[in-house]
Amino acid sequence: MSKNWYPIINEENCIECGACFNKCSHGVYKLEGTKPVVVYNEGCVQGCRGCQSLCPAEAIQYAGDTGEKKAGGCGCGGCC
């Protein structure tokens, strides 16, 4: 788990589909009504882009993102 890598939701772009919430099994998100909210930054796995890759609105970026992608995914168990 990471303290330097976590999702940031662009609320203007978010369509509240819940894809990020449904994908993440690490407790990073919760829903407030239908709106996903990041509540557990440290639960995000360094380098995981699973929720970003599923977001149809491209509303997710990551704090700590340097643009580098890990070969073979992030190692969190198949989310990437």
UniProtKB/TrEMBL annotation:
Domain of life where this protein originates: Bacteria
Any Pfam family the entry gives: Fer4_2
SUPFAM superfamilies, per database record: 4Fe-4S ferredoxins (SSF54862)
Database matches in PROSITE patterns: 4FE4S_FER_2 (PS51379)
InterPro entries: 4Fe4S_Fe-S-bd, Fe-S_Ferredoxin
Annotated coiled-coil segments of the chain: none
Magnesium listed as a keyword: no
The entry's keywords: 4Fe-4S, Iron, Iron-sulfur, Metal-binding
GO molecular-function term, one example from the UniProt record: metal ion binding
Domain 4Fe-4S ferredoxin-type: 5-34, 35-65
PANTHER family: ADENYLYLSULFATE REDUCTASE, BETA SUBUNIT, FERREDOXIN III
Protein known as: Dihydropyrimidine dehydrogenase subunit B
